[in-house]
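Hi D.,

Good news: the full-assembly prediction came through. Inputs first.
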Amino acid sequence: MLLLSRRKGCRVVARNTVVRRTLSFYWLMLSPALLFLLAFLVVPFIMLIVLSFREVDSLLNVLPSYSLKNYTEIFTSASYLTTIRSTLGVAALTTVIVIIAAYPAAYLLVRTGSKGLRTFFYILLISPLLTSVVIRTFAWIVIMAQNGLLNEALLKLHLIDKPLSLLWSMKAVVIAYVQVMLPFAVLPIATSMGEIQPKLRQASMSLGAGRIRTFFKVTFPLTLPGLLSGAAIVFSLAAGSYITPLLVGGRLQPLLPLSIYQQAVQVFNMPFAAALSMTLLVLVAIVVGLISWISKRWEARLHD
Amino acid sequence: MTETTSHSQRSGTGKPRRRRKFSALTALIWIAGIIVYLFLISPILVIILSAFSPTEYPTFPPSSFSVRWFTAVFQNSDWWEALRVSLILLAIVTPLTVLLGTAAAYGLGRLKFRGREAIQSLMLSPLMIPQVVLGIALLYEFTSLGIINSLTGLVIGHMVVAFPYVVRVVSVSVIGLDPKLESASMSLGAGRWSTFRRVTLPLIKPGMIAGTVFSIVESFGEVSVSLFVSSPGNITIPVRIFSYIDQTFDPSVNAISVMFIAFAVIALIIIDKTVGLTKVM
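Then the structure:
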């Protein structure tokens, strides 16, 4: 320790110039990316915010005046309020199902003794991230269609008399979402589960708590930060995706991303699509902000 | 003293009871976990099953084996055209994104300043922003710039989407790199650039390879932003798949999907060999 600090002292002068040169080098490395993100992430968003306050004439030409008309239309129309509610509802439902399903999956990942099995679980978890969303969604169509795999299997097993209509419903959207988003919750929960010292659980159980009580009193509170960071990602992805609901839910589902897509691509009312986008973005930001606030409070409590 | 004995006694009597509960509950958790993993992999299994199925909708158990959908893909010029666009995009997007992302991950990893966290969030934000909002924002900007329907627009869109993945995996390597190695090189007289080239780059190479793989995978499978900024002349494979599913049900999509899955498996192996599967998330 002493040796280390003395060595540091000798080099301080020589180092100062090196440090300065090095710092500007790091900034030089960082700046192209910052410029890129400024041009193609920050600027387009500012443009979109500005656009959302514009109006259109009957031919959908953008007028130069600014107003709150788009927003008042969204928040006073019953159908858009329903859309907002069901968007948040579907995202919340997906998040809850994903979290519940993530616990046993994370448990297996953390507790399995065999290294090969752990790698296998990791492959299963990461492979959905590496396959395009159109392909995963296509698979769900094959599974859930009227003459699809699931109906065929159920008919053959005489569990049902006539095919269930699963496709083109919110149910289908939630099922497909859960599959796509599970890894985002399993991995952070598994990480925080792996950090729990076995001693803590042993202590709880040796004091007479059963395994279920130990889970709720020890494991769950300690994995809550992982759970919340997973929940934030899952919620924002579930509220903002449009490919999956479009293909397995159908164009008519009351979901904000679908409304935005239609306004932009089919109706060509860009200011209104922009206002809907901002509404979606703010709603997601509020929920994610709330989740990370809870997470920060909780971690502060844990470390006290 | 009495406390310790009572404690050890309790844990002594608790042990057999715990083991009994262990088996029943653990079995239940394992079954639940295995169901979750099966659910996770089911779409991929279904795709493989239906790609080799002779009928339009796959049957279970499979009745016979056929490669007719693969033949259908190879005979359809639409797929070849889409493949051409996708490959051109990959050739442009991948090196640019990896360069940009590596430099950013390195610079950010070494700098300590106020607002560093904010910049990091900005860099990773395309992962969290609703894709539909990202798509429409770029659509509007590109329309204003006059680069909508051009390859340039698609390139930029793909770069925005792939960039955070590169930053994330390269950061893993940067964190693991000891700055002392670089200062040693510089104190021995090597300049900043040659140190970066000869010391830093070789050491963060695994992260860069994994970043390249992620960039390729994201760009090759990208559809949410592409759908907004691509034109009929620039249709990538995923966008083509999307319109086939959306408009006509074409089972040759199955065969294409199997190729995508094979591609993902290769990607998995490379990621495992470079930064390791456990470190990508």
